[in-house]
Amino acid sequence: MIEHLVEFFGRTHLVVLHFPIALVIVAAVVEVFRAIAPKLQRRAAVEPFRPSSAGSLMFAFALLGTVVSVASGLVLGFDGGERVDLHRILGIVSGVLMLMTGLALVLAMRPQSRGGAVYLGLLSVSAVGVGLTGHFGGELTHGAGFVTKPLERMIGMEEAVISEFDLEALNISQASLDTFHDSILPIFMNSCVECHGPDEAEDDIRLDSIAYVLDPAADMIRRDDPDMSELVYRIDLPHDDPDIMPPEGDGEPLTADEIELIRAWMKSLDS
Ligand code: HEC
After folding, report:
1. Which of 72, 95, 117, 223 is 20 to 30 A from 191 (CA-CA)?
2. Neighbours of 235 (CB within 10 A)
3. pLDDT score at 37
4. 200 lines ligand 1 (CB under 6 A)
């Protein structure tokens, strides 16, 4: 029974961790704002900084949440291996920073104390540490760049990688490359890349870049006879064929126009 409770405690990590991240960042923003606002208004005699009760309360809950998160994280990640090392080390460092910040807060709250600035500095560093820990933790559960990937696709950063490829090495004309980006890639992005892309490369093939599509190792395209290409075969099948792409139930089959565009583009490759 104990082991089940321990396992449960480890898994609470994924719920509890959000509280200290949000609380310590908000506490730091509030206190830093309170510290600099009087200076910005150029008030004559600026009092030394003293922690506010609202900020301190938020920090106290953040500290509690951090202690629980670090403890449950250590239980959860016990056999997580090297993958979790960075997250674990940052988590422990942030935990220590938070404890030091707590100590600084207690000292800063004593009457006549001038320790407010120390507290403020430690609080800010802790907020950054906890935020970074959360960031790398998120990459563990969702994969690197999970949040920003749609933006990268939107602004075409993935294409930037493509332009590094040499046209000559790909043996493709500028016109064919442009057509690929203008008409073909959007079809693949829409219907195929969720399974054949950076997140998941089913059957080891990717369709999110010209270099992968033309990669001889992928063997999807036959330049000498496009109609015999595996890729064309897979998209131009009866809709209930078990080989059709996208697989039945996992997306609409490509339209006749889309298939024709892809065919025509492949034919342009060798001309
Ligand atoms: C829902 C996931 C999914 C989607 C969407 C999808 N595929 Fe696939 N694809 C697979 C899986 C799984 C396989 C391996 C099993 C198989 O060969 O049928 C595969 C295999 C392939 C193959 C065969 C590769 C080889 O080595 O023989 C090609 C070509 C292909 N897909 C092209 C496409 C194209 C083009 C699209 C978009 C029009 C697409 N796929 C959309 C999951 C998907």
Report:
1. 223
2. 20
3. 87
4. no
- Per the listing, tokens 């001889």 go with 216
Atom 1 of ligand 1: nearest residue by CA position: 250
pTM, two decimals, is 0.53
Whether pLDDT at 141 is above 80: no
204 lines ligand 1 (CB under 6 A): no
Mean pLDDT of 103-112: 93
User: Which H, E and C letters describe 7-33, residue by residue?
Assistant: HHHHHCHHHHCHHHHHHHHHHHHHHHH
Task: Using the atom order of ligand 1, give the atom closest to the CA of residue 230.
Answer: 29
Residues 162-184: pLDDT tens digits?
444 556 677 888 888 889 988 99
Residue matched to tokens 């006749």: 256
Q: Which of 71, 63, 72, 87 is nearest to 13 (CA)?
A: 72
Mean predicted lDDT score pLDDT of the chain: 87
- pLDDT value, residue 262: 96
pLDDT at 87: 92
Report which ligand 1 atom has the smallest distance to the Cα of 220.
Answer: 29
Say if residue 20 is preceded by a cis peptide, omega within 30 of 0: no
Query: Given the CA of residue 191, which atom of ligand 1 is nearest to it?
Result: 37
Task: State the Cα–Cα distance between residues 162 and 211, nearest whole angstrom.
Answer: 7
Q: What one-letter code names the amino acid at 99?
A: L
